[in-house]
Amino acid sequence: MMLSPDQAESDLSWTQSDSETILNGLKSAGCASDEPAEGEERAKCKADQPLSREEKRRRRRATAKYRSAHATRERIRVEAFNVAFAELRKLLPTLPPDKKLSKIEILRLAICYISYLNHVLDV
């Protein structure tokens, strides 16, 4: 930020004092110093601060074990979804009977077939 010639540096003292206050608070907690912290001290400093629920969720989701389990669950879900479509497809009449249909075509054909069956029952 540039200062105009008629603007005093004291006008910006709030930014300095805020950052100094934050830095002093971190130093008093042992989380910041003029020297770079070693790995264990740095980890200890971050571990002292309680994690938010969102941060805990992010860290848990970042593990390879979680990703692997999630991928397995998703694979099972998609497989069950596809089996359900295959079963629905077997119930729908088409010419030829083994014609490959997309999922949206299966749904649209099922809607038409259900309305046809309702019409047959009403007559």
Account of the 3D structure:
With 123 residues, this protein is an all-alpha fold. The protein has helices spanning 13-28, 39-48, 53-61, 64-91, 103-122. The N and C termini lie far apart (81 Å). 0% of the residues are buried.
Q: Structural class of the helices, strands and pairings? A: mainly alpha
Largest sheet: none
Helical percent range? Answer: 55-70%
- Quaternary form: single chain
Instruction: Write down how many β-strands occur, each being a DSSP E stretch of 2 or more residues.
Output: 0
Estimate the global geometry from the Cα principal axes. elongated
Please report the number of helical segments. Answer: 5
Mean pLDDT: 77
User: Radius of gyration from the CA trace?
Assistant: 32 Å
% residues in beta strands:
under 5%
Uncertain runs? 9-16
Order of helices and strands: HHHHH
The end-to-end span amounts to: 81 Å
Tag the structure with descriptive keywords:
single chain; 123 residues; mainly alpha; 5 helices; 0% strand
Question: Can you describe this structure in just a few lines?
Answer:
With about 120 residues, the chain is an all-alpha fold. It has helices at about 15-30, 40-50, 55-60, 65-90, 105-120.
Spell out the blueprint of helices and strands:
Blueprint lengths: L12 H16 L10 H10 L4 H9 L2 H28 L11 H20 L1
